[in-house]
Amino acid sequence: MSSFPVTKTSTPKAKPDPHHLKFGRSFTDHMFMMEYDEKEGWHNGRVIPYAPLSLEPAAVVFHYAQEMFEGLKAYKSKDGRVLLFRPDMNAKRTTRTNQRLCIPALSEEVMVEAIQAVVDVDRDWIPEKPGTSLYIRPFIIADEPFLGVSPAAHYLFMIILSPVGPYYEQGLMPTKIFVEDEYVRATPGGTGEAKIGANYAIGLKAQVKAHEKGYEQVLWLDGIERKYVEEIGTSNAFFFIGDEVITPPLGGTILPGITRDSVLHLLKDWGYKVQERRITIEEVFEAGKAGHLKEMWATGTAAVISPVGELSWKEEKITINRGEIGALSQRLYDYLYGVQTGAVEDAYGWTLEVK
Ligand SMILES: *Cc1c(COP(=O)(O)O)cnc(C)c1O
Predict the structure, then answer these.
(1) Pocket flag, ligand 1, residue 70 (CB < 6 Å)
(2) Together in a domain, 219 and 310
């Protein structure tokens, strides 16, 4: 089906035990690779055996972090179809990230076709146990060898695939979140809305601090006043307060999540009052203490919906929904996961079958 040449591996690997899949630890037999140079633009797209790369130590990516990535999943439906969830949105986001990082534009059609091509070759690697999937990681690195600070003239676009287990072994599990009021992730005019490795490197310190204190994730506050809620770790934040659902607006410092966008669609269609507006951490705690904060959850490709059971900010702690999964969190998860796996009718045309 695809126009990309395929070279199959001569040494297929053993597939990991579907009952003990860890996130992002094992990779399939093949990968996609494409190159960019100034003369030919993006060219030489191909599916080849998964293998180490050979790069010059002077490659720009190692020194100045000119790198972007994406993340999505392929699911196998009960009747054996291979489904991608809104891959066109990942391609659109890639266009915006590339612009921000001075990476040459990659055609959105080519990107979606490349994802389909490599997933098709490794479709037998998609685990079938409930909750499992094939995580797809497209990324671009600047591999030109030079130590000047300017956009590189040579790049690699690659896609690797990793069979992954359910994010939470026992189904949805409420998490404990630490509100970070020292370190920040993004500032206006910075790169918060771009999906780039650099944003993750600068977030590690806070993540480690939260883990040491016994929390699973960090809730990021705005970079200027440390007052407004931005994101939760690597996912977007939602608050169900009174009869309204509130999520921080996309304004340059927040990653425009595809799960976030899907949840906004669903909530509006289900008749909920939804607001994309700035919300202070103080408002969240006041609502929590007054008993108006009914539910809170994070959205992202990895866990889809991740309910939050406890929040800690400075010396204060609040428990949300008695630390249990809320009805709306569960409904959103069931619907989205159902569409992704082909069990619920795809009323929005969100899935793309890899044929
Ligand atoms: C990828 C990502 C998200 C979630 O985006 P999805 O498209 O829903 O997976 C949220 N925040 C950050 C920082 C991210 O990198």
Answers:
(1) no
(2) yes
- Atom of ligand 1 minimally distant from the CA of 236: 10
- Give nearest CA residue, ligand 1 atom 12: 234
- The residue contributing the CA closest to ligand 1 atom 15 is 234
Find, among 144, 149, 122, the residue nearest to 133 by Cα: 122
Q: 191 CA to middle of ligand 1, Å?
A: 13
Q: Ligand 1 centroid vs 348 CA: distance in angstroms? A: 21
- Return d(Cα 288, Cα 330) in angstroms, integer: 20
Ligand 1 binding pocket includes 235 (Cβ within 6 Å): yes
Residue pLDDT tens, the chain, 355 long: 468 999 999 999 999 998 888 888 999 999 999 999 999 999 999 999 999 999 999 999 999 999 999 999 999 999 999 999 999 999 999 999 999 999 999 999 999 999 999 999 999 999 998 889 999 999 999 999 999 899 999 999 999 999 999 877 667 789 999 999 999 999 999 999 999 999 999 999 999 999 999 999 999 999 999 999 999 999 999 999 999 999 999 999 999 999 999 999 999 999 999 999 999 999 999 999 999 999 999 999 999 999 999 999 999 999 999 999 999 999 999 999 999 999 999 999 999 999 9
Q: Which atom of ligand 1 is nearest to the CA of 301?
A: 9
- Within a domain: 223: yes
Specify whether the CB–CB gap between 222 and 190 falls below 8 A: no
**Number of structural domains in the chain:** 2
Residues 218 and 140 in one domain: no
Tokens of 318: 């609040």
Taking alpha carbons only, the member of 161, 138, 136 closest to residue 49 is 161
Q: Which atom of ligand 1 is nearest to the CA of 199?
A: 13
What's the domain range around 148? Answer: 30-165
97 lines ligand 1 (CB under 6 A): no
DSSP bridge pairs for 180 = 220
- Residues 6 or more apart whose CB falls under 8 angstroms from that of 311 comprise 177, 179, 219, 284, 285, 288, 296, 317, 318, 320
pTM over 0.90: yes
